[in-house]
Amino acid sequence: MADSFHIVEGELWVEDHSITYIGAASKKASHLAEHIVWDREIDACKNLLMPGFKNAHTHSGMTFLRSYADDLPLLDWLKYQVFPMEAKLKPEYIYDFSKLAIMEYLTSGITANFDMYLSPEPIAKASVDCGFRTVIVGAMNNFTQSVEEMEEYYNTYNHYHQLISYQLGFHAEYTTNRERLEGVASLAKKYKAPVYTHNSESKSEVQGCIERYGMTPTAFLNSLGMFEYGGGGYHCIHMTDEDMNIFKEHGMSVVTNPGSNVKLASGIAPLAAMQQMGINIAIGTDGPASNNCLDMFREMFLATGLQKLSLMDASAMDGNDVLYMATVGGAKAMCLNTCDTLEVDKAADIIMLDLNQPNMRPIHNITKNIVYSGSKQNVKMTMVNGKILYEDGKFDIGTEPAALYERIESIVNEMKK
Amino acid sequence: MADSFHIVEGELWVEDHSITYIGAASKKASHLAEHIVWDREIDACKNLLMPGFKNAHTHSGMTFLRSYADDLPLLDWLKYQVFPMEAKLKPEYIYDFSKLAIMEYLTSGITANFDMYLSPEPIAKASVDCGFRTVIVGAMNNFTQSVEEMEEYYNTYNHYHQLISYQLGFHAEYTTNRERLEGVASLAKKYKAPVYTHNSESKSEVQGCIERYGMTPTAFLNSLGMFEYGGGGYHCIHMTDEDMNIFKEHGMSVVTNPGSNVKLASGIAPLAAMQQMGINIAIGTDGPASNNCLDMFREMFLATGLQKLSLMDASAMDGNDVLYMATVGGAKAMCLNTCDTLEVDKAADIIMLDLNQPNMRPIHNITKNIVYSGSKQNVKMTMVNGKILYEDGKFDIGTEPAALYERIESIVNEMKK
């Protein structure tokens, strides 16, 4: 993995939605370029172009709960703060809240998200209207969405817009009864599709599943045939060797969410062990109610730092591998096979990182600088599908930020009443 | 502590180096203002002015080692990477390297640092030339600096410039012999001065001291009379109850460095217990070779997050208390008594945070937004001692960033030969 990064000096061309040339500003390139009428030529000033980060687990619509109630015990927070506020949600609110999250993703160089929240339509609409790429995942539990609805969503949102796709999923084993889970497994078989869910985030969740079914969540869900076509788990903290073997055997992805796991005191996922087994690992911010920051730089630092800390080994989890997780690993987990790297014919999901900032100097090692010192402040440009949505602090997402902030404050004040 | 933050709408005036008015843009204020010829009036656009962060432990001159050798076991890193490169240092290099660190502090809203590195002169000169505030701390060990030199430094750098002060200190118990330590304790008594050192950063350090002297580092140093006039410890991870009692009794400060402690796998300082005892806590980034980022936002998140994680309690270490540590707690540890809060007659060490960014919305709770979601990208302005040194991404520090970057790359390339 660590060897998969190499840095090229030269030009990168984008036409429509794709990368069409990477290489030296050579004669051949100049010759080809003669036939193209360029909209814009950007001098990158020796800054770095790289594939956008993939936020492989989030709940964008939850921005309204950011810092609404921090520093509370987990269950109090959910029961008395999150659930009563969520009960007041309307789809049009989710649309605006998701847009706010997309803005933050752009500031952090994130070009795609894997989004689980109550209704798919406002999520899809917010992304398309902003020009952002989103993989929506089923959010079914005993109270929200049904197997039939999920099938309908699967067919609708996989043919909705080139920026949108949909994957089967449900909230978690502990919030979804056996009948519904069997329904999801049937869909997985019918569509030969992967399935995603929150998995082993807390000890009590694992314990509860063992009491109900005599198996860990991973083993139980696997016993239903849930992962015949792969899929993945969000969090994956309290995992047994057998659980990890199931992930490995089925080519499943672990999506780690270290910021949220720290803030909610959930624990540290055994990423180093998973990586050693060859399991694909992706990184997500989780939602803004629990993290609260939608910042891939923070997550990357934590993804390596918490391994070092828990294994008491400063050499654990190389920074290069973490950068791989945040880009290629994420794209793989999200089935975004054309958005993973900078290559000709790949989607133009590209960011420019400002290396002319004190935190990026000196340049001994660019990837380590990104993982260990990088910050949102280094994101000079975020392009999704060939369109620049964020550049030098300005957004081009079809909405004025100030108007969106104002609308959100007024919605939130209404909800608090 | 949590109650000590309150937010005022109105105006803040700075004259020369101090704050001269905070309050409503009232008639009285307007009347007073008539007699003043303002250099500049800034519309804060409903953004937040707050006291600058205090970086209470760092080694600024080590920027040259940032990402030179990450992801190595601790001792290999020190022996084969850090020490051989440090052997090639010259004072003029430390000057440039310190300036690079100062630039990064400014981008993170840090207005003062507590700096321990090889030679005081280039550190002091870099800070004065940039207009930055620095408390230099003695860096004595068996090979660098002597007790006599430290006394000379103490007298020199406490009368050098209003931006510079000097505190007694040494590298650590395990690198400094008893005779030298007794010398420092004598200076502490002579000058009625506090003393600072790295303390209980690793288990082996504590074990070594117990083997040498039958006491923990804190107890042993205290037995020499080292802390008669207070002082503090950097890191303070592996602390006994007795150690913490000594800190409490002597009014000493703990300076926590969670980013470095994570990356070097050192452990988690028991901040919640220390706080409960009423020990003053400050936050430092540690040096750029070990962290590698000089970013108070990352440190604040970790200061609370690691407590939550280690105590398995999402309610541990309230975000408001962490913001206090990063500002008032730091100023207290560094004896910067006029730089701690925004009040009339206090030093104008002020930052402006951009609340008109997606990660600061909605505004349920500004302090929690800063601690949990804040990033360098939110720092719109950093003022030290009444002068704006950083604003909207531009530096005013008497050096062109591009020239400094170039000089540093060339020094570093020379050193690597």
Automatic annotation (TrEMBL), chains A, B:
InterPro entries (alphabetical): Amidohydro-rel, Metal-dep_hydrolase_composite, Metal_Hydrolase, MTA/SAH_deaminase
Organism superkingdom: Bacteria
Pfam families: Amidohydro_1
PANTHER family (alphabetical): AMIDOHYDROLASE-RELATED DOMAIN-CONTAINING PROTEIN (PTHR43794:SF11), AMINOHYDROLASE SSNA-RELATED (PTHR43794)
Record keywords: Hydrolase
Name this protein carries in UniProt: Amidohydrolase
Lineage: Bacteria, Bacillati, Bacillota, Clostridia, Lachnospirales
Residue intervals of the Amidohydrolase-related domain: 49-389
GO MF annotations, alphabetized: hydrolase activity, acting on carbon-nitrogen (but not peptide) bonds
Organism: Lachnotalea glycerini
